[in-house]
Amino acid sequence: MQRFFAVLLTAAIAAFPAAQAAQTYEAGRDYIEVSPPQPVETGAKIEVREFFFYGCPHCNKFEPPLKAWIKTLPANARFVPTAVVFDRAVTIAFYTFEEMGITGKLHGAIFDAMHVKKLKLKEPEEVAAVVAEHGVDKAKFLQAYNSPAVQKRVEKSKEHTKGFKLEGVPTLVIDGKYMINAKTIGNDADKALAMARFLIDKAAAERGKKK
Question: pLDDT tens, 29-69?
Fold first, then answer.
């Protein structure tokens, strides 16, 4: 895995001006066409997949505006967060949260623990201590953490990372076909999220042509 690619955030985004929403972008210059395209897990909805790592400072900065932007997604799109396996403890923690149905409760807490409180969270017990502070039974968390179901989720993350030839985080992939990362957008998060919306519409139009 190569170094993290920075996406330095310039503003929280809830909506975009009409002129920006109408902006067009070019493959190779503004985004990367994934070759070959990868399967999606969202059925009839356009998949908006984010690759992230809890320990990445750029992912931490990207999280608040991304969270706001997700609320503006059209009905035909679905957001799919994907923790990459840079550090197994917090990666497994994310998939444990998913398995236990507590992602919304703990996702931001882990970012805060690592980037505000400066905790390393290298071991499962360290993550479990943070989880316990937020009202989740520590023993139940560790039991799920070590379960085959969670390990299966982790292995799937590895498959996605390999399939998309991921070079860093944060990265957005639209419908398994179009990738947005710092190679193309530099430090412009406004552009990244506006472009993601453009690519959602593009992917939807392309799906429509196949019917």
Answer: 889 999 999 999 999 999 999 999 999 998 999 999 999 99
Torsion of CA 156, 157, 160, 162, to 10 degrees: -110
CA separation for the pair 121, 18 (Å, rounded): 43
The whole-model pTM stands at 0.86
Nearest to 89 by CA among 145, 134, 135, 50: 145
Helix ranges restricted to H, the chain: 18-21, 57-70, 88-100, 103-115, 124-133, 138-145, 148-163, 182-185, 189-210
Q: Would you call 124 helix, strand, or coil by DSSP?
A: helix
Domains of the chain by range and CATH?
Answer: 1-84+166-204 (3.40.30.10), 86-164 (3.40.30.10)
> In this predicted structure, what is the pLDDT of residue 22?
52
Residue 12: is its pLDDT beyond 60?
Answer: no
Coil, strand or helix at 54: coil
Burial class of residue 12 (count of CB atoms within 10 Å of its CB; 0-12, 13-18, 19+): middle
Rounded to whole angstroms, how far apart are CA atoms 100 and 82? 16
Residue with tokens 């139009």: 205
Q: Which pLDDT tens digit goes with each residue over 77-92?
A: 999 999 998 878 999 9
Give rounded-to-5 percent helix, strand, coil for the chain. Answer: 50, 10, 40
Q: What CA–CA distance (Å, rounded) separates 49 from 37?
A: 13
